[in-house]
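Quick start: read one record
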Amino acid sequence: MSSAERTRHNAFANSPLDRCGEHRIDPGWLAAQRRAPDGRYLACDSEGRTPVFEGRLCWLDAATVAAGAPVNFLGQLDDVPIFALREPVAPSAFPFPDAAWLDLRSAASVLPGDEAGLVAYARGLANWQDATRYCGYCGAPLALADDGHRAACPGCGRLHFPRTDAAIIVIVEHGDACLLGRQAAWRPRQYSTLAGFVEPGESLADAVRREVREETGIEVIDCDFHSSQPWPFPASLMLGFTAIAAGRTIHLADGELEDARWFTARDIADGLRDGSLRVSTPMSISYRLIEHWLRTRAGVELSELPHAE
C-alpha cells in the first residue's frame, strides 16, 4: 500500500472536495457561487460545534441563509458550492431540531470520512482567522480576502495566509518491539507513538531523529514516511513515520514524557485484552501507525483487539 493510500485511511484526510483555489481571487466567480440555489452551508454554534443527525452532517441551503451572511467558500462537490458560515447559529433556531451539536473530535467519530474532512477544513480555517486578527509586523487590523483564505494588512501591505504547523509522529522499532510513551496528562495506562513539531531549517528525517532522541534518548538510524493527517487542534499537519532504532536504552531526557517503554506485539495484545494498556483513538494517526506495525510485523489486527479505542 502506498503512502497516498494509507493517508486516505486517516481521519480528516479523505475529502473529495475540489477547493477551486484558482478561483478565490475572482470576486465575480465567488459571487456566482453564492447565488447558486443548490449551494450548501456548514453551520456551527458559538462553541464551534457542528450539527449532526443519524451520522451525517445537517446542511443549510441557500434559501435559509440570510443574504450577506459572512461565509467562507470551501470548494465544490460535484459542482455544488460548499460554504462554511462564519456567524454562529443558535441550535434553538436551527431548522433540524433533532440534530446533535458535536465538537470536531466527537463528530469525527460518527461522520463518514469525507464529511469529517470538510468539518476539519472549516474549523481549521476558522481557527486561523480567529487567531490572526492583527498584522504581526505593524499591528494593524487585518482584512480577510479570497473568501477567508488570505488576510491583507492595510497598514504595511503584507499578506497573511493560513498557517499549518508541521509535526512528525513516529513509531520506532528495534527487533521485535516498538517504542511507545505517555504524558502525565493522558488517560491512565494510555501509551502512544512519539511526536513533536518540526523546527526551522530542519528536514522531516532530522525532526524524527531529534524528537526521539530528546524525549527518550533513543538514537534513530533510519526512517520512512508512512502517511499524513490534517490535525486542526488548532493548526497542525501530522507527518507519520516508521523508524528503526540503534538500541533500546531509554533515557527520558526532556521531561515531556512520564514514561516510555518497548512493547512487543504480544505485550500490546495482552495489555489491550486485560485493560492494562490503552492506545490512542482510531481517529489519530498514532493508532494507524501502531495498527501498521502490528499487522506488518506480527500479523495482528489492532481493530480485532478489545479496548483498542
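The mean pLDDT is 94.
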